[in-house]
Amino acid sequence: MINGMHAILYSPDADADRALLADILRSNTVDAGGGWLIFALPPAEIAVHPTDGALAQELYLMCDDIEGTVATLAERGVTFEGGISDQGWGLLTTIRLPGGGTLGLYEPRHPVAAG
């Protein structure tokens, strides 16, 4: 039986990205050994979208109030790319990770499967 999901972000600056995730998530962590932190996440959901192009995976954090969440995270030094855009299905922005990667953040307007 599936009891959870484990996502991995690869980064050239894993320590900085871990520190940012610790500040964003403020969740429980475990050390898998040697400083390899694993962060607890809120409930998750997964979707499959069709594509005729390249195969890809995307990772998004969800929130109830994107403007409030962005303001709080910005006060903590989190950098965002662009503003908040209205995608119809939700409000979306992008968090810039210190290692150069990105992480989506959105406030869904669609029914949510998790929780």
UniProtKB/TrEMBL annotation:
Entries under InterPro entries matching the protein: Glyas_Bleomycin-R_OHBP_Dase, VOC_core
Annotated ranges, domain VOC: 1-108
Protein's name in the database: VOC domain-containing protein
Protein source organism: Pseudonocardia endophytica
